[in-house]
């Protein structure tokens, strides 16, 4: 009954299939009388509730991994799936849309917080933040001389940005404050107004040898595994690597080899190929600064993400176009 082209019925009812901040939950109940999950549901659990209750909207998180098989039998009441994230590579959005369900995401609201965290990772990787803190938490008690515990100065370095969308541009803005030279690789060149002096390099392989620091800001996993032994090897020896985009972009075996060999001086990572069960070999390396996929984890941004998802739900249920269709 939910095959492509089938008309969908049902006008109301919302399931929030993940835990959300209090302010978002309050709005969801106030405006929609929403059903609120007390845990992060998976796709089977969430769709079963939608079907049982005849709900029109599903607000999802990354655990709701809707496949093409799910999309082929979506409940006929369902009209919109609202992702509380910019990325939606955890679901088959094309199959859902083909089945007549609108899919939305939350662009714009994560930009500044993600760029802030990416730059925090950059600074901590360059300045050995993990090692310095470990010394202090162990009690210090031993002095260090001039040759000891030396980081690299981020100011004035050449930063390569892969993916010059909103977040990449915000990262470049922060880098300008540190006097960095900015190179970028993107599917298309930006206007001079958006470039603000950054240099476009059409060929990634030509850009990498010039990057003393490399930061990934691609919007999803469509690029496949971008950073491999080959591409890490193209960076100048002693480069710094930062990733707040997607763990799937990186061959982690190659990353670990590069960190151990000195090909990379250090790395700052917020995302991993497998989450939360990430490769703990990374945690054993002193020259890696790690965070648990928390780039958007501020009160302001998480509230804004939830509100934007609800804005999309409200529009669709009122018969208006979704503000943020994917």
TrEMBL record:
Keywords: NAD, Oxidoreductase. Residues 15-326 form the D-isomer specific 2-hydroxyacid dehydrogenase catalytic domain. CDD domains: GDH (cd05301). Residues 119-295 form the D-isomer specific 2-hydroxyacid dehydrogenase NAD-binding domain. One of its GO terms (cellular component) is cytosol. InterPro entries: D-isomer_2-hydroxyacid_DH, D-isomer_2_OHA_DH_cat_dom, D-isomer_DH_CS, D-isomer_DH_CS1, D-isomer_DH_NAD-bd, NAD(P)-bd_dom_sf. One of its GO terms (molecular function) is glyoxylate reductase (NADPH) activity. Pfam families: 2-Hacid_dh, 2-Hacid_dh_C. PROSITE patterns: D_2_HYDROXYACID_DH_1 (PS00065), D_2_HYDROXYACID_DH_3 (PS00671). Belongs to the D-isomer specific 2-hydroxyacid dehydrogenase family. This is Lactate dehydrogenase. It comes from Muricoccus roseus.
């Amino acid at each position: 009954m939910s095959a492509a082209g089938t008309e969908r019925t049902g006008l109301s009812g919302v399931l929030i299939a993940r835990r959300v901040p209090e302010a978002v939950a309050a709005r969801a109940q106030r405006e929609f009388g929403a059903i609120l999950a007390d845990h992060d549901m998976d796709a089977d659990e969430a769709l079963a509730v939608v079907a049982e209750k005849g709900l029109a909207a599903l607000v999802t998180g990354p655990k709701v991994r809707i496949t093409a098989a799910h999309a082929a039998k979506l409940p006929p009441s369902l009209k919109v799936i609202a992702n509380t994230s910019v990325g939606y590579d955890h679901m088959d959005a094309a199959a859902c849309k083909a089945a007549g369900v609108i899919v939305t995401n939350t662009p714009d609201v994560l930009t500044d917080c993600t760029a802030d965290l990416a730059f925090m990772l950059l600074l901590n990787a360059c300045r050995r933040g993990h090692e310095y803190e470990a010394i202090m938490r162990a009690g210090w008690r031993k002095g260090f001389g001039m040759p000891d515990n030396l980081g690299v100065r981020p100011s004035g370095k050449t930063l390569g940005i892969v993916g010059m969308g909103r977040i990449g541009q915000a990262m470049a803005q922060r880098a300008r404050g540190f006097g960095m030279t900015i190179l970028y690789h993107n599917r298309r060149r930006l206007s001079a107004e958006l470039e603000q002096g950054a240099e476009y390099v059409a060929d990634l392989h030509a850009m990498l040898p010039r990057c003393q620091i490399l930061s990934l800001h691609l919007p999803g996993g469509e690029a496949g595994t971008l950073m491999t032994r080959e591409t890490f090897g193209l960076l100048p020896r002693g480069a710094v690597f930062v990733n707040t985009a997607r763990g799937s972009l990186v061959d982690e075996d190659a990353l670990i080899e590069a960190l151990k060999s000195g090909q990379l001086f250090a790395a700052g990572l917020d995302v991993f190929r497998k989450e939360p069960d990430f490769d703990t070999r990374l945690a054993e390396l002193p020259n890696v600064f790690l965070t648990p996929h928390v780039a958007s984890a501020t009160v302001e941004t998480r509230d804004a993400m939830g509100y934007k998802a609800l804005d999309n739900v409200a529009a669709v249920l009122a018969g208006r176009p979704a503000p943020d269709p994917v």
